[in-house]
Amino acid sequence: MTESYIDNFLNKLLPNLRIAVIGDVMVDRYVFGKVERISPEAPVPVNKVSHITSALGGAANVASNLANLECRVFLAGLMGTDEYGTVLQKLLTDAHIDGSGVISRTGHATTTKLRVLGSRQQMLRLDFEEITTLESDEEQMLLQWLQERIQDGLDGIIISDYGKGVLTDTVSSGVISIARKAGIPVLVDPKGTDWSKYNGADFVTPNMKEISDCIGYTVANAGGDVIEAAMKLHERYDFAHLMVTRSEKGITVIGKDGKVWSNPATAQEVFDVSGAGDTVAAAFLTSIAAKLSVRTSLQIANSAAGVVVAKVGTYPIHRSELLQLWHQWRPNRRWAPYESLSCREMAGKIRQWQQNGEIVVFTNGCFDILHRGHILYLQQAAMLGQHLVIGLNSDESVHRLKGEARPLVQQNDRAVLLSALACVDDVVIFNEDTPKELLAILRPDILVKGGDYKADEVIGREYVKRVEIISFEEGYSTTNIIDKITNMVRKGIL
Predict the structure, then answer these.
(1) Active-site pick, 98, 161, 278, 445
(2) Is 334 within a domain?
(3) Distances (CA, A) of 88 to 207, 366, 369
(4) Which residues form the active site (predicted)?
(5) Most buried among 48, 57, 96, 238, using CB within 10 Å?
């Protein structure tokens, strides 16, 4: 079902979504060059400039991401009547973005960020800006503009706050109030230390620095610390969800009810994080607007971010790139009967894949009575690479770990069920209580564990390149299924 939902989203729903972006619009300028010597005038590098480009930045970059996803995009903000205001207007026109909500103020300096790059690495940034809040009549113009867009039909709203003055308390609370009355989801990319103006938002998406600034202390980039900080902010503010972008640790979503979704980072190489948060906002909000689940929306957003950080400069992801990613995720092999392989035979297959430059993901477990939680966990693990191998506990090891009554399903039957899943490449059965000896032979690239583990506590971590922790779907377990059946038998229902 997840496959058909994502196919439908990427091919049919996404190009028809209508999304409004409200926030601080900017122009991003890039000076590209090459550094080969030090200046004789001062101990600084000399950058021999090859070319200069301009791109949409800030809230306009969010709009650009949405436009490249082929949504219909409506943008509101503030710009000046200066040179860069003209550049901004042309960039919006070229990107097919409706900029009718961008207020033009005489004498105002259009916010511009100029980045100097040498050999694809950012060396220096120069900011040209004038931080000023909207006048009361401008606030009302913007809110009236939003009302008109909603009357024409909107599917979602992104508030992109860079602290430049557009998102006053009146505008922020007004936008959220209007959206809630219309039943339209709102995602906020926040700024500052007081987030009360975002009360009522469906999703607020801070990075690690922003959540630390707001809560008043440095939050460690570890799962438990992030969740604890998020729950404290949930007590302070009225958001449905906090979605924390955690750099190399990926993204974690924490609901007001305490429910947690996590997705690890996917980028293999990082050149520039400029605009990555904007990409996350665009990809996630469109997925939510299309009625995809939080878990699936998170996977799509995180994968999109993995694409843009591997590029230089502010880079809006294209729908074609998401489609390409999806075709990589979606298994294209025909179903084949389960073939029992020894650990040595499995190691040989893994070496062949790795020699072809393909990433091999490994996870392990008992998988006694396969259920929804298992499936979602395995699908998420499979998205981390090209091949997913499962280490399956034998009947004997399950008996030792789970008790005399387990397993309910014999090992070969469990292996057949798992190998029939489209996201699984191979299943290898092991008899030990832990997969340490198996991992010492297989040596995959990524080891995935589910639950509340810390990476440095995972058994077998020394045999892989990295460890990823994926949270289990709450409310699903083999034990719960067994308890439910037992209770039904006791009541005479079965």
Answers:
(1) 278
(2) no
(3) 27, 57, 57
(4) 278
(5) 57
Is 248 marked within a binding site?
Answer: no
Confidence tier at 102 by pLDDT (50, 70, 90): very high
- Region class of 23: left (phi > 0), else alpha (psi between -120 and 50), else beta: left
Contact 350, 356 (CB under 8 A): no
Mean pLDDT of 65-76: 95
Q: 136: number of CA atoms within 13 Å, CB side? A: 0
Nearest to 147 by CA among 20, 309, 287: 20
Residue 203 pLDDT level (bands cut at 50, 70, 90): very high
Q: Give the total number of structural domains in the chain.
A: 2
Domain's final residue, options 301, 329, 357: 329
Predicted local distance difference test score (pLDDT) of residue 266: 59
pTM: predicted TM-score of the whole model, two decimal places = 0.70
Q: 437: how many CB neighbours lie within 10 A of its CB?
A: 14
Q: Are residues 243 and 126 in the same domain?
A: yes
The predicted structure's pLDDT at residue 194: 95
Q: How confident is the model at residue 271 (pLDDT cuts 50, 70, 90)?
A: very low
Does 337 reside within a domain? no
pLDDT at 274 over 80: no
Tell me, what CATH number does 412's domain have?
3.40.50.620
| Average of per-residue pLDDT across 285-302 | 88
Q: What is the pLDDT of residues 150-197, one digit of tens each?
A: 999 999 999 999 999 999 999 999 999 999 999 999 999 999 999 999
Question: Was 345 annotated as part of a binding site?
Answer: no
Q: Does 323 share its domain with 422?
A: no
Which residues are CB-neighbours of 138 under 8 A, at least 6 positions away?
A: 78, 103, 105
> What pLDDT is stored for residue 451 in this prediction?
77
**For residues 34-54, b (16+ Cβ closer than 10 Å) or e, as one string?**
ebeeeeeeeeeeebeeeeeeb
Q: What are 78's strand-pairing partners?
A: 103
Furthest C-alpha separation in the chain: 91
Is 209 marked within a binding site?
yes
Q: Give per-residue pLDDT as tens, 368-417.
A: 988 988 998 898 888 788 889 999 999 999 999 988 888 999 999 999 99
Q: Would you tell me how many other CB atoms lie within 10 Å of the CB of residue 390?
A: 24
Known binder of ligand: residue 208? yes
Report which of 98, 72, 92 is spatially closest to residue 19, judged by C-alpha positions. 72
Active site residue 278: yes
| Same domain? 349 vs 295 | no
Cα–Cα dist 214/207, whole Å: 11
Q: Is 374 in the same domain as 420?
A: yes
Q: Do 471 and 374 share a structural domain?
A: yes
* pLDDT for the residue 442: 96
Do 29 and 140 belong together in one domain? yes
